[in-house]
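[Meeting: bench + compute handoff]

Bench side (C.D.) handed over the final construct sequence. Compute side (W.E.) agreed to return the predicted structure before the next meeting so the bench team could plan truncations. Sequence as handed over:
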Amino acid sequence: MNWKTYHFNDLSVGKLYEILKLRVNVFVVEQQCPYPELDDLDQEAVHIEYAEDGKTLAYARLVPAGVKYDIPSIGRVIVHPEARGRGLAKQLMEQCVEYILTEWQAEEIQLQGQVYLQEFYQSFGFQPISEEYDEDGIPHVDMKFTLK
């Protein structure tokens, strides 16, 4: 599989448009959650993507320590609706964790996950560090991975 990582300035205009369109289509339209998808974190992030035939099928955003949280974080985890059920979400999370542990030499990772995905994130070693809370009308929980 051909996973790619990009810094913001390495994204072509076309690739950035494709990623943002996918994020808006799923996080805003599909989940019926009208909120500002563009939050000024993309410019500082590393973007991980899997594409087939030029179409983004899986994507996540890695934010370095000190930008959103004191430790690195994973966010905007997404699989294109047409590619769900193929195991891409699992592979995507493996790519994200590996990148942060290897490239950033981090020992902890944080994420803000939707509650219905809590068990999925726990399967990678993330543990809840907050109570359930509402974020833009969707139940969320903060979770942290700690290298043992």
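W.E. noted at the follow-up: The radius of gyration is 14 Å. C.D. will use this when planning the next construct.
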